[in-house]
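Action item from last week, closing it out:
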Amino acid sequence: MDPFKTTGEMMGEREQNLSVKAYDVLLNMLINRELPVNTVLQERRLAEMLTISRTPVRDALNKLENEGFIGRSGGRTLVVKEFSIRELIETLHVRRTLEAEAARLAAGRVPAATLDAIEESINALLAAADPSPQQDWQIDSQLHQALAHYSGNALLMQYIESLRLKTRMFNMRQVPERFIKGHHEHLAIIAALRANDAEAARAAVANHIDNVRDSIVKRLSQI
């Protein structure tokens, strides 16, 4: 504890930490669809659930609203929003642009040991008898986060992660045909990174996200 901090400063830090905690918990619930579409988000109930005061919950909700994860019904009541196909296409379009550039920048920067570990995880997942969606997402994240991290651009990394989470929320109907194809595309990205081929890495990521977009849009159009 800093002996020179005032009581107000310490209380402010505690509220900030609780706001981060509330944000992380609520975002995870949204991503895992534990809060269904159109669920009304009431500060009091959420604060009781998290056993914290309403102020950090309010801060977390404001951040989630600003980031587009939740919205307002009738312009007033906060609810879990339903994303449109148009929003999905726009999100994936921006992801394609940002992640392709991240891959170009990351070529030659990602340590061989990191690529080895990700490739090993992908191959183990492909060989698994019954992999879970959580395992699939975790391994998918390993590669995409490595690309963002080794791009060397912190702001680019932040934007990419936010957009990836939104894409996961969009995918409310499974596209099982993407499992094997998607991870083979990941392996192609890794191969380009191993070869320090910036253009091939950029093209491999662009192709991967184009295929994600096409599969999800095709599935949604059939429902």
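Closing note: The CA atoms of residues 102 and 153 lie 8 Å apart.
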